[in-house]
Amino acid sequence: MKFKSLGLAVLLTAFAGSTFAQNRISGTEKCSKPDSSQSIEVGDQSGHMFVIERGSCTWSVPLL
To answer: What pLDDT digit, counting tens, does each position of 24-49 carry?
Structure first.
C-alpha cells in the first residue's frame, strides 16, 4: 500500500511540474565586469577549471 501512495505522489508531482513548464518566463539583465574572480583547477583533465565570480547585475527588462 505504501508503494501505491508513493507512486501516486511521484506521478502527481511530475504532472504538476509539466504544467509549470508550459509557461514561458523571460527577462533581460545587464551585468558589469566581475568584482572578484577565483578559480581552482579541477584535476580530471588539464585545463579544466572551476570558476566563481562575484559581480552586480540589474534587470533592464523585468521577468514576465
So the answer is: 788 899 998 999 999 999 989 988 99
Cell reading at 56: 552586480
Within 1-64, where are the H helices? 2-20
pLDDT on residue 17: 58
Strand partners, 30: 58
Torsions phi, psi of 4, nearest 5? -65, -45
In this structure, what C-alpha cell is assigned to residue 14?
511530475
- Rounded-to-integer distance, Cα 40 and Cα 47, Å: 10
**Is residue 15 very low, low, confident or very high in pLDDT (cuts 50, 70, 90)?**
low
Cα(39)–Cα(54) distance, integer angstroms: 12
Cα dihedral sign, 52-58-60-61:
positive
